[in-house]
Amino acid sequence: MATKRRISFGITGASGALYALNLLKNLTGYYDEIHLMITDAARIVLATEVALSLPESPKKSQAILTDYCGCSEKLIQVYSKENWYSPVASGSAAPKQMVICPASMGCVSAIATGASNTLLERAADVVIKERGQLILLPREMPFSTIHLKNLLTLSEAGVTIMPAAPGYYGKPKTIDDLADFVSARILNHLGIDNILNNPWGYNC
């Protein structure tokens, strides 16, 4: 019996909702389970930037996102910020991979200090302590010295820091092309071959 591919995914209130939704939709094509955590601020940004309103109810949000991504039911599993009984809260059950896209500086700070005040922060802490793979896409400009120190702390702990900085050598024509570039790089780091964009040297 094949092992299910499982990943945890966090969306915080930093600007960059398009990146989050683009990545989520692409992940549904490669994973059997996506354990999703959305902060209160993230729901505000999603409504503001992409006109996607998600209610506080995890079940209702799950239904909306399942429809948005066109995936099978229960592939995306949404958890409230205090659902400590969810699999992502424990090293014995959590997926070994996690992406936070976009990652606010408040979220970065909490993870760097091991605060674990919310389920998303705890899920990231679990992946780090279990020596799994955690990828963060920080979204801020400019970075303060405090931000950079927190990011360095996480990098030294084995976290991959991938700012949402799309390349332009592929001559992107739309904002979705830019989001595809970022998603492609994330998928590459998750060990997933994809054709979202051509690698450097193939279309220059």
Kindly list the characteristics that best describe this protein:
204 residues; alpha/beta; Rossmann fold
Description of the structure:
This protein has 204 residues and is α/β, with parallel strands linked by helices. It has one domain (6-189): Flavin prenyltransferase-like (Rossmann fold, 3-Layer(aba) Sandwich), CATH 3.40.50.1950. Helices cover 39% and strands 15% of the residues. It has helices at 17-27, 40-50, 58-69, 105-112, 119-129, 145-156, 175-189, and strands at residues 6-11, 33-38, 76-79, 97-103, 133-138, 160-161. It has a six-stranded parallel beta sheet, with helices on both faces. Helix 4 (105-112) crosses helix 6 (145-156). It is globular, with a radius of gyration of 16 Å. The termini are far apart. The mean pLDDT is 95.
Concise account of the structure shown:
39% of the residues lie in helices and 15% in strands. It contains seven helices and six strands; from the N terminus they run βαβααββααβαβα.
